[in-house]
Specification:
Blueprint: E1 2-3, H1 6-15, E2 25-29, E3 35-36, E4 45-59, E5 62-66, E6 70-74, E7 81-94, E8 108-111, H2 114-122, H3 135-154, E9 161-163, H4 168-179, H5 186-193, H6 197-208, H7 212-229, H8 234-240, H9 246-257, H10 261-266, H11 270-273
Parallel strand pairs: 1-3
Antiparallel strand pairs: 2-7, 3-7, 4-5, 4-6, 4-7, 5-9, 6-8
Length: 276
């Protein structure tokens, strides 16, 4: 995993021509390399689709998981950072001057039909810096935009979101848990936050809309999805994210992702797809 500095991230934005909103938009295939982009924003709306692999995007409201078969919406001028691992995907950018009507002003992950996925990849024929928009380009981007809005509205908002608190004491507890998921516990969270259990539970729910234990389970499954997408063994992943029982891990993962951990791990990887 290469962690890009702020300067390197900005250079990547310039290289990808994200400083130019495009007319009406543009697209490029995401790097399959393991990269961690620093905090940044751009003037375009962004929709990134993952055909395979797993990616995480962190925004002002928390972490967002982008599993295979899903897309993530990033509104224009939203500060975020992205961790890419083994991704076979495409990012499509829409100039806000040409596209409106989306009431979702926060990051959101949503499922995508195979037809819309094919259309997202088809936008690659219009890369950044291409000639002025043709009627075909504008009509196609408009169709993709409207279909993605429909898919977003039909999705379950927040399902792949790990909320972020703003209270410094809660942030300390969250950061400690994320750094040591295999040992994370309520007792450690209380120690990090310096709060009584009653106060901690009350403040945590008020800021995240989730109980601490539910948040911790989701954090563990986020990390598990990333490890499994890399091809790590299910038993190793379960232990690494804090599950002593393999059956408990398998049940939680299936409920969260809609498929077994073994099936998720066995999904085609970028290196395998490129050989086809």
């Amino acid at each position: 995993m290469k962690n890009l500095t702020a300067t390197e991230t900005q250079s990547m934005l310039l290289e990808s021509r994200l400083t130019d909103p495009g007319n009406p938009g543009f697209a490029f295939r995401n790097s399959s390399s393991a990269l961690f982009y620093g905090w940044h924003s751009h003037a375009c709306h962004q929709i990134t689709y993952a055909r395979s692999g797993t990616t995480q995007i962190e925004g002002p409201d928390g972490h967002h998981l982008l599993p295979a078969g899903h897309a993530v919406w990033v509104p224009a001028n939203t500060r975020h950072r992205t961790m890419i691992r083994n991704l076979n995907g495409v990012s499509v950018y829409f100039n806000p001057a040409h596209f409106s009507g989306c009431s979702t002003t926060v990051l959101q992950t949503f499922p995508v039909t195979s037809m819309v996925a094919d259309m997202l990849f088809h936008t690659l024929r219009w890369p950044a810096g291409c000639a002025a928009a043709t009627p075909l380009a504008h009509s196609f981007f408009q169709a993709v935009w409207l279909l993605c809005l429909e898919q977003m509205q039909n999705g379950v908002a927040g399902h792949f979101t790990l909320p972020r608190a703003t209270h410094p004491s809660l942030i300390r507890a969250m950061d400690s848990a994320l750094a040591h998921l295999s040992q994370a516990s309520l007792a450690q969270a209380l120690n990090q936050a310096g709060m009584s259990e009653r106060s901690f539970r009350r403040h945590f729910y008020a800021q995240t809309g989730m109980a601490w234990q539910d948040w911790l389970i989701q954090a563990r499954l986020f990390q598990a999805a990333t490890f499994l997408a890399e091809g790590q063994r299910v038993t190793d992943v379960a232990a690494a994210v804090g599950y002593a029982s393999l059956s408990a891990f398998a049940k939680a993962f299936r409920q969260f992702m809609g498929q077994s951990s073994a099936a998720f791990r066995a999904a085609p990887k970028v290196k395998d797809i490129l050989k086809i």
